[in-house]
Fold these 3 entries.
Entry 1:
Amino acid sequence: MDYQLKAGSEFSSVDPPVVAPPPARRLHIDGVDGLPPSRAMGITGNVLRGVAAVLTFVAAIVMGTAAQTKRVVVIDDSGSPVTLAGTAKSHYSSALVYFIVINVLTLVYSLATIILYQASKKAAMAGIYLPLTITDLLTMIFLVSCNGAASAISVVAENGNRHFGWDKICVSVRQYCAQVAVAISLSMFATVAYVILVLLTIIALHKRL
């Protein structure tokens, strides 16, 4: 404590000046803390969602229509020819049905968010941008999971598995396997679109740290 000499040889204490601490740094990201998403971020997000919507739409149709019937003529015990028919359909596999469902849901979600961005005012987007970002991340995760499940079925159909006694069915139903592979590829590109969308959000957050 400082002391100052005054008249009459009396000492009085003088408090040091109070220095106010610097204001705490707040974290801001587009759409959080009342800040609406930037115009560039909104346009980029709509473009990526539009690309994902188109890709998942085509992927769901290609996978849903994947079917092929193979007919084989064999000789029975009496020596008469018998025609046997076997059909491969995507609906016969729960993993491929899961693939179709997730791609349809992604299509609906992508279109809904695009419409929401276009219909809502910029200020109103600040309150829903963070929930949409979280939903984008969940959508990406579901796309990855359905693509992984469908890819596993595709690999088994192409190569078989001798340990479980599963034959290579793609030898007989090439068209069916080709459709499944095309659908998976399209859905993977849609997944990439959502990966880019999530990464852009992370980069926007990092720049405001």
Entry 2:
Amino acid sequence: MSTHRSADRSFETKSSGSRYRHMRPAPRAWLVLGTCCAVLSASAACSPAPQAGRSSSSPAVSGSPSAPPATLPGGWNAGGDLSTTRWGQMVGVLLQGGRVLVTGTSSDGRGVGNVDIYDPAGGWSVGPKLPNDRIGAVAAPLPGGRSLLAGGRPDFQGDCCPPGPLATAMTYNPSTGTWTKAPNMSVARAYATATPLPDGRVLIAGGYDAQIRPLASSQFFNPSSSTWTTGPTLTHGRFRQSAVLLKGGGVLVVGGADQENPDRLLSSAELFDPATARWLGAGTIGTPRAQFTLTALADGRALLAGGLGADGSTILRSTLLYDPAKNQWSQGPDLASARTSHAAGVLTDGRVLVSGGADQAGRLASCELFDPTTNSWSATGALTTPRSNHLAISLPKGHVLVAGGSGSRDALASSEL
């Protein structure tokens, strides 16, 4: 557990300087509009493809792994500690063999290039550092076991005038433990989404530019040729949105910040249709919200749960279900507890595990399970440590790994599964 004192002085919702501060607020509203964790896993539909690129000079750094998870009777097990406390803008990618790569923000919310690797057989160890510190990057698994990391912005100190976003990209090779430079994106962007497609490509969508204006552009990364190509234009420019790959191969994008007003949340959704390579309208979620979870279900639908209302103070327990066959949203069953800044992972039986988050009283340890066959929620074992703004990754053998986040008083380095 970290001994670093959390930077948040109070539990803020609607306060001076930001309408959307919530659980360890960032300096500016545009930093905290969306969900605060990335949940990425390798797509089973991806077929292996060769990789190309120039090897980074950054060497693999071996560290002393923390202890493997303790075996406890049911519930959550200790998963060991990351090398540093992390919360908020973490990036996580599932590697081959059930390992997980994690990078992103540190305990004070600053962008860092430090990397942690989780191995189910050996716990956490230090991975190769990124060539440059960054925050707001996106990552996705590639065929053959590698991972792509792209965009973001350099770290900065202060409450205003951040540096512009980055166009740089790189791939990680777990076999050699090295980062390899990839070609730059044609458009620099931060706080975009990265979604692995069934054909092995990665779709990068949205984000913001150097003037903090949401982008409507998208790009494809082809790992077999290590090249970028221009993708179709979104119907709305947006950043800090959520995106998931649906069972049918489409990519559902939801929410984010409005193109005309970065402080206004979008309630619209859109769907990338791989058959036509176009973005299509996908209805509206009704109440605009931030810091929700969006999860693809095994039956082809998507589940949106909880979040923070557009007023910056209302924490939601409502859920929505998107049906691509009807291209519409319907009301889902309410969560037992209203929560925001929580995380979600999918179990091998198709149920969705929602963990932690925050309500008006503070951080939550409670967890809930959504069963898509019955469209119902049920309670399950609570986390050992209340946390929000944490990372959740579904592991191949049915576990969900949660790591970092904000605890009741401190930023966290701990993990559990």
Entry 3:
Amino acid sequence: ATVCMPKAAHCPTCPINTECKAYTLLKRKAISAIPNIIPPVAEKCQPKVQTVAVCVTRCVGRSGAGAAEPSFLLLKRPAEGLLAGLWEFPAVQMTPLTDGDETRGSPAAPDHESNRRALGSLLNSLGLGPTSTAKARMPYAGVYLHKFSHIHMTLHAYSICLETALGTQGLKAETEDPEARPRKWVTESELQDAAVATQMRNVFTLVQPKTGRIGVSTLKN
């Protein structure tokens, strides 16, 4: 690091200059300078492409049950890895389709049937009862493209409304499975202060009737 520097290589004092091909070429006058030759520029890795189906899950009390405002389900991400420890809406990583180019901002068309089936299975595993995968019960809100430095993530946003007699009071906040991810129900105002990942906040905006829109939004993290 102090000898073979990109713009000021100290070749004569380098202890391994006899093994250096670039220095040999310089001595033979085959090249005029070394800095343009070494160190080699590392090839830039292409970002990974991920496709994620997300369901903004809302719970309301039946008419007259006294529910002040709807609550939204959040699940906590694992303690390690991407976005460790942050909260998110129920989401499932899907197999990317091949008719789009997420690296250029052109997401593939969603497989709604597979996405709804996977999300329905996730909700059932959380003990939320049978959930219909029909379009009327889990409408599609749009797609959001989020760019990390090493991952281009396409999020397909859906929503579902669960109606119970007592709102979230009729649902268990936790599961008895010790390996299950922590979860909680929050109001929209509580959601604003929660440790929620940026792309999930944008998915939430996408599904809102007043502010959401069907289209592509891009944010580079």
